[in-house]
């Protein structure tokens, strides 16, 4: 468990993909920021894979997409074309955001609150009588996917199929496969997902409804509506970006609060404190540890030269616990901190477009969980395994005082 | 107290209008819109916190 294994200050190399880094990243982040603010991916020194770890540097990189591009080569997740708008650079990027952002903007999302609250309670009802739960398998995984099906008007029976595709694409074979096999499995699942959405789009063109997909189909920007391919590329991204990220944030949040009863007491006593508590969980836990960019213009940072084509890992988790930004209490959990300018949703033009929906889901999920399950803890002997990159917890066994379902 | 909004820097994190909905509001894209020219004394603490919470530094206090 020695974080020294993950950072080699002499060679300037580091490896954020080790399981114990994901489980307890703070010591790793601290060494990165202090000893090698621009490090190389372990075993790749000189090969063009850089890790940027200080708050100001990460923020600067996020805000300069002409240097740090989001071009498709950055990430292969089984897609045919660049994901819209994640893998599109400015200026074209802004056109897509003008179409998509209003459909997932704060006003539209606020209208979903009763529906999300109903879904959360339905999910809780399935295990609340039992007094034990694998909160990952039974709460944090089904919740965001059910909400997605609800807002897109897709049949709830498709839930298990979606979850399978998502896992095949994000971590085929549980993340243990050889790269070639993983890529092949990703593309196979990607194909099925495209085919599924082909059918959905054909259906929506025939019978338009009030759901998110119907609204995309009819929204005009710059004098036109989205093409068929563009719609597919947006929906593909929604699945990948919208499900795992909320799952991992709820995993990290429940695991943290299960082990820190003093912090969850406030949520139990005052549900309106969900906003600052969620923001502080996003900051301190930063479930999406890092995001990837590709260098588009030669640039130098802290004496390290980066060349076009180099891969850059922006370590959001490290930025979010940098004392230069958050002061001497950066490592502590403090929902009342004076300013919380965390970058858990990224920043600059690519700021997470699902952040309003994510925040609603997180706040409502934690409010309802704590209303119905105020007392809980890790099951005796539980050892939590966090996945690197996106910090999901494989099994999150909790025990609590059982109560009756409400539905 | 007056607030300055840098439209080019705002990307719609939306912290300002959550923390102080009487001074800031969302436009159609979820970007920030100033709702008042002059922040009344009673709202100034809240407005200051909202300005400080912007990850893009898009908000500043003019006087």
Give a quick set of tags describing it:
heterodimer, A: 407 residues, alpha+beta, seven-stranded mixed beta sheet, three-stranded antiparallel beta sheet, 18 helices, 12 strands, 10% strand, B: 63 residues, two-stranded antiparallel sheet, two-stranded antiparallel ribbon, 2 helices, 19% strand
In a nutshell, what does this entry contain?
With 407 residues, chain A is of the alpha+beta class.
Oligomer: heterodimer
Beta-strand proportion of chain B? 15-25%
Report the order of strands and helices of chain A: EEHHEEHEHHHEHHHHHHHHHEEEEHHHEE
Question: What coarse outline of chain A follows from CA principal-axis ratios?
Answer: globular
**Helix-strand pattern of chain B, N to C?**
EHEEHE
Tally of helical runs of chain A = 18
Number of strands of chain A: 12
Largest β sheet strand count, sense and barrel closure of chain A: 7 strands, mixed
Unreliable stretches of chain A (pLDDT < 50, length at least 5) are none
> Residue ranges of chain B: pLDDT <50 for 5 or more in a row?
none
How large a portion of the residues of chain A is in β-strands, by DSSP E? 5-15%
Average pLDDT reading of chain B = 96
What does it look like?
The complex is a heterodimer of chains A (407) and B (63). Chain A has 407 residues and is an alpha+beta fold. Helix content of chain A is 48%, strand content 10%. In chain A, the strands form 3 sheets. A 7-stranded mixed sheet of chain A has the order 1-2-3-4-10-7-5, sandwiched between helices. A 3-stranded antiparallel sheet of chain A has the order 6-12-11. Chain A is globular and about 60 Å long. The termini of chain A are far apart. Chain B is built from 2 helices and 4 strands; from the N terminus they run βαββαβ. Chains A and B meet through α4 of A and loops of B.
């Amino acid at each position: 468990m020695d974080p020294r294994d993950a950072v080699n200050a002499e060679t300037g190399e580091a490896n954020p993909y080790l399981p114990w880094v994901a489980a307890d990243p703070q010591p790793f982040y601290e060494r990165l920021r202090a000893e090698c603010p621009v490090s190389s991916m372990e075993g790749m020194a000189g090969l063009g894979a850089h890790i940027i770890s200080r708050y100001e540097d990460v923020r600067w990189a996020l805000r300069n997409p002409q240097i740090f591009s989001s071009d498709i080569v950055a990430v292969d997740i089984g897609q045919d074309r660049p994901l819209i708008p994640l893998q599109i650079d400015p200026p074209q990027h802004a056109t897509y955001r003008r179409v998509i952002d209003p459909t997932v903007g704060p006003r539209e999302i606020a209208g979903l609150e009763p529906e999300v609250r109903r879904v959360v309670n339905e999910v809780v009802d399935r295990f609340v009588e039992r007094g034990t739960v694998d909160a990952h398998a039974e709460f944090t995984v089904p919740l965001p996917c059910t909400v997605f099906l609800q807002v897109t008007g897709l049949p709830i029976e498709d839930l298990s199929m979606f979850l399978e595709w998502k896992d095949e694409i994000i971590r085929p074979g549980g993340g243990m496969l050889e790269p070639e096999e993983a890529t092949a499995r990703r593309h196979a699942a990607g194909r099925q997902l495209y085919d599924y959405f082909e059918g959905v789009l054909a259906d929506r063109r025939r019978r338009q409804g009030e759901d998110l997909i119907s609204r995309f189909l009819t929204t005009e920007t710059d004098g036109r509506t989205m093409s068929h391919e563009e719609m597919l590329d947006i929906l593909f991204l929604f699945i990948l970006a919208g499900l795992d990220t909320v799952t991992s944030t709820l995993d990290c949040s429940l695991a943290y609060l299960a082990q820190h009863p003093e912090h969850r007491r406030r949520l139990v006593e005052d549900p309106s404190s969900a906003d600052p508590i969620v923001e502080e969980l996003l900051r301190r836990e930063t479930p999406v540890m890092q995001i990837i960019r590709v260098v588009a213009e030669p640039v130098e940072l802290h004496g390290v030269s980066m060349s076009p084509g180099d891969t850059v890992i922006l370590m959001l988790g490290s930025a979010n616990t940098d004392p230069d930004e958050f002061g001497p209490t950066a490592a502590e959990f403090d929902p009342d901190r004076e300013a919380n300018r965390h970058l858990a949703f990224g920043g600059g033009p690519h700021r997470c477009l699902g952040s309003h929906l994510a925040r609603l889901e997180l706040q409502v999920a934690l409010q309802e969980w704590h209303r119905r399950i105020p007392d809980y803890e890790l099951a005796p002997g539980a050892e939590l395994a966090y996945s690197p990159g996106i910090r999901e917890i494989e099994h999150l066994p909790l025990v609590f005082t059982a109560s009756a379902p409400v539905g | 107290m007056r607030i300055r909004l840098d439209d080019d820097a705002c990307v719609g994190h939306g912290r300002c209008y959550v923390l102080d909905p009487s001074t800031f509001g969302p436009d159609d894209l979820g970007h920030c819109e100033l709702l008042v020219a002059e922040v009344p004394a009673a709202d100034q603490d809240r407005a200051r916190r909202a300005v400080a919470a912007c990850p893009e530094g898009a908000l500043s206090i003019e006087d």
